[in-house]
Amino acid sequence: MIEIPNSNHFGEQGSTGGTISMINTDLIREIDFSSGGFPVRYGDKLSSVLNIQLREGNRHKVETDISIGMAGAGLTVEGPIIKKKGSWLLSMRKSYLGLVKGPTSLTAVPEYGDLQAKVVYDPTPKNQISMVGIGGSDHVHITDQDDLYNRGWNNVLYHTRQYGIGLNWRTLFSRNGYSILTCSQVFNQSEFLVGDRRGPDAMSMTGSERETTIKAEINYDISTKHGFSIGTAVKEIELDHIIRSREVEFYSNETGKLIKLTPQDQDSRLSTFKASSFVHYKVTPTAGLDLNFGLRGDYFNLTETTNFSPRFGTSYQISSHTVLNGSFGYFYQPMSYIFLNWNQHNKNLDSMQAKHYIIGLEHLFDQDFRLTIEAYIKDYQDYILLNDKENLILNNNATGYARGVDMFAQKQLTNRIYGLISYSYLVSRFKSPELDEFDSDFDTRHVFTLIGGYRLSDQWEFSGKWRYISGKPYTPIIGSDEVIPGDWEPIFADGINVERFPSYHRLDFRLDRRLHFPRWNLVTYFEIENIYNRRNIWSYEWDRSKGKSREIHQFGFFPIGGIRLEF
Known about the structure:
Elements: E1 8-9, E2 20-21, E3 28-34, E4 49-54, E5 63-69, E6 72-81, E7 86-95, H1 101-104, E8 111-124, E9 127-143, E10 155-174, E11 177-196, E12 199-221, E13 226-245, E14 248-251, E15 258-261, E16 264-286, E17 289-300, E18 305-317, E19 322-333, H2 337-340, E20 352-366, E21 369-388, E22 393-414, E23 417-432, E24 435-439, E25 446-455, E26 460-469, E27 473-474, E28 477-484, E29 487-492, E30 499-500, E31 504-516, E32 521-529, E33 537-543, E34 548-553, E35 558-566
Antiparallel strand pairs: 1-2, 3-4, 5-6, 5-35, 6-7, 7-8, 8-9, 9-10, 10-11, 11-12, 12-13, 13-16, 14-15, 16-17, 17-18, 18-19, 19-20, 20-21, 21-22, 22-23, 23-24, 23-25, 25-26, 26-31, 27-30, 28-29, 31-32, 32-35, 33-34
């Protein structure tokens, strides 16, 4: 298992977000998403964990898949190795949206590329060695931009590179137990250059972060009613953050205010490490009831903090089709490396803490139709917010909470029909001694998704997706002050996230056509995004000439198409 800080393109360093996934969905074997209450083998996470397992390549023959669409091109190749004792799998993708920038006069076009690979080899029936790699890069150059949050920054260059590679050795040492030894390294580097009306050198930030990890895990079933897991890991961390700037200001999503940076010229390099261990015990005292007890310990040398995380989970099978689940636990996460390495004060920060209380119900209506309902409470302590508006000084004095319900119903493909319905309700608020309680950026009250499809035959398939998201909170700009000619500062409303964007919704439709030939297949597709041309708002931009905000919209009605070759 490789711990990748961010598997998305166009994410900020130290975050887990991003607009496009680096992982090719055709390579995914299984996805396990834990919105809370996850097991003790996972650490350094405060709210959720996403576990993605890539499938193996074809162990019998070589296969090739080539795709070409309006956004980019992709190639996937796979095949067997060493008398079918293993397989290899390689996938590459490259966008070419940059080609449309000139003809369309767009101010910003994202460009990206990625690569994934997996090699599996079974030297003996009880041993398996696998190597997994993933890498990607992305690039955005924004010109002639003058929006409200960047206060007149009109030339932004953003470029990132990242990779993760790991070697796993899995051994079945008895009928009841197995061990996993993993060696991995992940690396990410970002470059952020900003210019304004005073010149191209307003700010430059270059950061590289490398983690090299060795971890071991043993899983053993003592009997049909008792089992345990133990594990340990050591992670070496190398950080290098270079920051150079004039006196600049930027908008903070956390406080809704301008943050001022005095002139910077620093190159902060350091090496540190993390160490962790866990033990997990499972017992089945009676038929249909499972109890899970876990304890995790984490040490972070940079902040000199040690945290212990007890966790408990239970699962009770009410009937052959219905299961009741519950969990409780403590979770810790340190601040992102770039802020810990920003100044000496931030190195004294404790890890943020969360307590999770979760209860859920799973019901299987049929072999192909499952319903899951989960309610949760997450209480946050020692949360990190800005302590000073100067130079990003942070403090552990904030508290907060998240309350929500998730519902998920899925019908797998049978009788030519498949579908998915999900709904989430969330309330999330934070406060600190310096700030009154406010809605967090994640406080999106309602999210509803409907996906469905019908496979008319082996050659024709129709599918569609409709999504609704209630308005996200934001802090509006109500005016501006011109400090010097050509340079201005926005004036924000009192309070944090006191307004909300209008709701977002759109309907997409897709048609797939598959043609079969003796040695290859041709797949063509046509998709229309936002069929009813909903004018969804991306942001508000302050128009100084009119003294009010104007709406910046996302894509409206947008047709796309492409082809795939399989042989």
